[in-house]
Write a structure and sequence with these properties.
This is TraC-like protein. Keywords: Coiled coil. By secondary structure, the protein is mainly α. It has one domain. The termini are far apart.
């Protein structure tokens, strides 16, 4: 079996990169659809908020839960003499 040329290997890697980018786009699309459905069900679609204000509120929600995660995953304090 002959070794692939540089051009062939580059083409393979670019194809793989494009496939991964498409997978990431699909993941983001599914997440956006899920979050959008939840937001509409919660009544956010009926509010007269511009995108900047809505984004600010979503960031506040995310911040609230990130703080909770930080508390949950904080490392346990080291006990003396356990080295």
């Amino acid at each position: 079996m002959a070794r692939k040329t540089l051009s062939e290997r580059k083409a393979d890697k670019l194809a793989e990169l494009n496939r991964i980018k498409a997978e990431l786009a699909e993941l983001e699309s599914k997440a956006a659809e899920r979050i959008g459905k939840i937001a509409i069900a919660a009544g956010l679609g009926d509010l007269d908020l511009d995108d900047a204000a809505m984004r600010k509120e979503f960031e506040a929600i995310a911040s609230k839960f990130r703080k909770g995660e930080a508390k949950q995953v904080a490392p346990a304090p080291a006990t003396p003499g356990t080295n």
